[in-house]
Amino acid sequence: MYHRLAIGVALVAIAATGFVITRHQASHGVGLKPVPQAAGEVVPGGWTCPMHPDLLRDAPGSCPICGMALVRAAGPAADANPAVPVSVAQQRRIGLVLEKVGTSAITAGDLVSGQIVQDESASVQLTPKAEGWVRRLAVGGVGDKVSKGQLLYELYSPELQQRQRDYLDLLTRRDALTNRPGGMGPIGNTAPEIMLASIAKERFRARARLVAADIPEDVLQELEASHRVRELLPVRAEHDGIITSLTAREGAAVGPAQPVLSYADTRRVAVELTLSPRQLGALGSQARVRLQSSVDPHQTLVVTARAQQAVVDPVSRQARLRATLNPGAHAAAFPPGSLVRAQLADAMPAVITVPSDAVLRMGDTEQVIVADGDTGFRPATVILGRSDGERVEVREGLAPGQRVVVNGQFLIGAEASWAAARARFAAHAKPRDNAAQHHHAH
Asked: Would I find Acetylation among this entry's keywords (predicted)?
């Protein structure tokens, strides 16, 4: 009997507690059941939770967060991306720049490091062909520009002076035979024609030795015309270039084993790429490499690289691959020693692309600002594809002919976020008011 009485008291307490909780929830506008609606009814405005207005459902039910009954939303759902008005004058003040969406080919592949180096085949090292001294040095140091035919230094060499005298002796003997009084009569037992032929052979050999000693052609012609030995022999540049090394100064003793200076043609350069074993294997027999200048990022060049020309380091297994390029009018953007951004890939088919700077990354999504008329701008969510650094492929979200903002998009994007937040707040404020009115009615 006692146990039955205790159980009865407990059941009455539980029921009373449930009644109090129900009255308390009702007094605060919280209903345990949804507003009576037709089963499975779908309304244009949708259904929302009074306590969680961000939640929107197509049919009535309970809130998955707090369990409250859903109520009708106020009218149709608010625009998630409302247009932001920007007048023409405001566009000019913020420097707004638009670009029409179109199709273009981009390159997509592995990025590798590269450096512009001198083309070794265009480098000249000047080493005297005989013992001597540098009497005059006409260049200041490494980095000086030189022009074709410019004097680099003058060499004083007794050995080369003696070669000039030997050559002049042959010229004197030849002139003596051809200008003898009485004509070309025999000399002893030797016919003059044979002697002239012998002198001509010796003269040819002597002149070749002077040419091999880097004596310029104009100096040899002056020697033949004046019959005077040139004490200081000039050494001139064979083509335009830049001094890359200077190992001797004025008064220094030099010889065949002592280079004086070297210079290289700056118009002939190469790019040296550093590749990993995987990149080298994927390169194939040859591939096009797109180079972007670090001096002027708007300047690009395309060269052809051949894998069989790579040199692999046995320790690091990295491969160095050199490809000759002809910068032409873009030489200033690819000077020797500068770094480049290299991408190994051929061009893809034409796809919808936008500048990489036009993309706004909002968490896990990407957006661009699209022009809606002349003074309206609206954010559009896009799905991106491959990128070559400057442009990025847009797989979904844009169509050719639309206009996107490429400069000033951050200001419009921030204003669009505020406009969307205000629209959501206004759309959800009325359901809360309706819920409060529904509570007071009961």
From this structure: no
The DSSP call for residue 179 is T
Contacts 24+ apart (CB under 8 A), 225-230: 227/168, 227/171, 227/172, 229/161, 229/164, 229/165, 229/168, 230/161, 230/164
pTM of the model: 0.46
The candidate with the shortest Cα–Cα distance to 371, out of 160, 86, 9, is 86
CATH number for the domain that contains residue 389: 2.40.420.20
Neighbouring C-alpha atoms within 13 Å toward the C-beta of 47: 20
Residue 415 backbone zone (phi > 0: left; psi -120 to 50: alpha; other: beta): alpha
List the 123-126 sheet strands across, edge first.
Answer: 123-126, 261-264, 241-246, 145-146
Q: Which segment of 108-117, 139-148, 350-359 scores lowest on mean pLDDT? A: 108-117
Picking from 82, 84, 75, 80, the residue whose alpha carbon sits closest to that of residue 429 is 75
Give yes or no for a contact between 353 and 135, defined as CB atoms under 8 angstroms apart: no
CA 208 centroid distance within chain: 51
Q: What is the DSSP letter of 332?
A: G
pLDDT tens for residues 375-410? 888 888 899 887 767 788 899 999 999 999 888 766
pLDDT at 18 over 50: no
Mark whether 273 and 387 lie in a shared domain. Answer: no
Average pLDDT over residues 252-267: 87
What letter would DSSP give residue 120? G
Give the residue numbers spanning the domain of 28. 2-79+423-441
